[in-house]
Amino acid sequence: MDDPMARSVEEAFDSISTAAPEGWRVELIEGEIHVTPPANGEHEEIVSELTGQVRDQRRKLGRYTGLGLNVPGASVTGKVIPDLVVAPKGAFVDQEEYHDPAPVLLVGEVTSTSTAEKDRAGKLRGYAAAGVPLYLLVDRQAGTVRVYSEPLDGRYTHLEETAFAKTLTLPEPLAIELDTSEF
């Protein structure tokens, strides 16, 4: 990283990350540092429902919450902490704080008032640029669930969307039915 500005942002990110209270998320998205307070109960209920449905339909996959990913498409040194990561079990056995997204099959985000815009824009672009096959966006403000797929040239080329309380089919590599009636 030869860019002095990027180095400066990275150093600030490291300092803020170290000082953040337990449960707070510090992310670097498109060159901006975002600090997010712990999620509320409704948010966590949705994440729990998502992880349960993946577990019930694809037992051999790992479901990770609070796992850091290096997503350079989100910034020069993008560092994000998705609400949900689905990958083969054992994909993240190292001691790293932020992991290579190569084994990731799906990243899921559940919007909050403080995170909605970065979930809909910066993270969407970053996950596509990193080649994450599926990006699931549960948009509480809009009452919709979207699955973005088929990343190509830094963007997703396919989108399926449904309103809460409906079923949404997540394509390969997951190929599961997501019941959103609990959202």
TrEMBL record:
Transmembrane segments: none annotated. PANTHER family: SLL1072 PROTEIN, SLR1083 PROTEIN. One of its GO terms (molecular function) is endonuclease activity. This is Uma2 family endonuclease. Keywords: Endonuclease, Hydrolase, Nuclease. Residues 17-178 form the Putative restriction endonuclease domain. It comes from Streptomyces hazeniae. It holds the Pfam family Uma2.
